[in-house]
Amino acid sequence: MGGYVARLGTKGPCDRALAHLNEPEQLDEQALVIAAGTGDGDAWEILYRRLYPRLRAYVGRRVDAGHVEDTVSETMTRAVRGIDSYQPGPAGFDGWVFGIARRVCADYHRHRVRLRRQDGAAAGMAEVIEDGRAPGDPAAAADEHAELRRAFELLLPGDQQVLELRVIAGLSVEQAAWVLEKAPGAVRTAQSRALGRLRQLIKAHDD
Asked: What's the CA gap between 166 and 187, in Å, rounded?
């Protein structure tokens, strides 16, 4: 997680931000975003640490494993550069950042396509579903996760995307709707259908 944070550092460590925001309840998203908009490096670091696990999980589904950290770092770099364009809304700051992440991942794929064309290669990019499994889990659990990954990879791209945002990234319906440029109701319907298809694929494999 150090790449972006190490480069940020305009004001010092995270606990300095905690010092000038005395009460825990004051350390809310709105206050942090306002402070970040003024160039407060501490505020940016706190926002980054809050977002990092979900952002990494989402990006890990969209790009090659060796490019995850660079993609997360590029996402936050663009967020810092573009903070003046942020407008509070139903999606909040998280939705805004995940919208940036989606575009960074799209840029990554376009770049990969150009490289494949230049090299004449036809190899696709391997994608893995983030399962958060700890080392030492029983073999049966590993088999279940492998089965889930196989089923997930058989879903249509649209189904994968809505589940990545809602389940893996943990965005709210409103945030996912903002990222996907859809109505919240459409996202709810899409999520329900995607989960239904995923269950059918798992059941078909079991049968």
From this structure: 9
